[in-house]
Amino acid sequence: MRHARFLVLALILGLSADAPAGDLESMIKSLPPGLRSGYASSLGGGTIFYHSVNAHARSALIARATDGAQYVEWESEPAPSRVPKGGVAFAWLAALSGSKGARGFDVTVNGKGMFRFWTQPDSAHKTWSVNGPGGSTLMFCATEADRFGDLFGYMFLVLRAKSITPGMPQRIRVTGEAAGSQAWVMIFEHPLKETAWIRPLPALLRSDNGEMQPVSVEIEHYGNHAAAEISMEGGEKVSGRLGWGLSSFMIRSHPVNGATMRNVRVVSGNAVLADTSILLLPVQKRTLYLLPHSHTDIGYSAYQAVVEKNHIRYIDEGIDIAERTAGYPEGARFKWNIEVMWPLESYVSAASAGQKSRLSRAIANGWIGLNGLYSNILTGLCRPEELFHLTDYARKAATGFRVPVRAAMISDIPAYSSSIVPA
Asked: What is the model's pLDDT at position 146?
């Protein structure tokens, strides 16, 4: 029924219920040439810091469909002084809620009412377009949906001569309807223009030429596919193809022993996007230890009985993965760490004889790691005898599984008191 209601809305509004083949590429090909950035500067509305499809675009204007008074307003890049017959296309980064129902938002351009569009009832409808007066069109294409089902991508606005102020920025305003809803629209405060982002990475990579020091180069490109060439003084030269949006590359040099300036040049087609110096610093080598585990949060994430079942399942799944990776090289074999002793006690109490035997083998092989405290506890509030009891089950497990328990772990709870050490 939800999908049927959306189809009715689509017919009324001229929306496309299903994304055409090619989605973004098809939409871009339908635009008149000479694309302009649809965002240049903000004029009004609430703001939020949020994720987008571009890692460098985080600040956004936001309007909701609450009381009919929430709006966002901004200016575009200036339009050409002479408007082509096919009109002018503007593009900007946008996002729509896809988890709060279909709610209406009205769009004015230069003070004139032009469109009404709707947020989506779910994340299945990633592409739509709506027609306005004088042959104008507003389109949206989501290239990503987040874990909440909200949609992130690009909006495109095509205006004909009668709707454009030639040679000037276009003033665009989006207002949410009075629906008492938290449904929202975001317009990211990020002009779409050719840009190169260059960042040395504090890492060393193994290669056939020995260790290499990497530099990340990200290029924003908004147009047809183009060739890119990146070169670094004393390092590599990298060539590639740019698609729409953000493309990532990596160039490498031999490691530096002291602070060193290096020139980096980035060329896209005939345009030089960057010709600048960056500072390379020596990389401090560190050893990182990854500890696969699941935090034991009784009663916060779910009821105790549900948490207990989950952690019993985690132990079985951890052993499954460890068995599958037992033939991997040393250091690549999976190991599961039981954060505190309560899940182990629960597992042993409910386990069959076969499960207990399998668990004993996994602990003996080092596939399952045991940590000494019974639960995540505020040790600073414990009396001495309470601290001693926190490791009761650890001593029992060490004897029963014939393995020393040498470590303890606390996650998401403030600190250890110094008195935990002798305890």
From this structure: 93
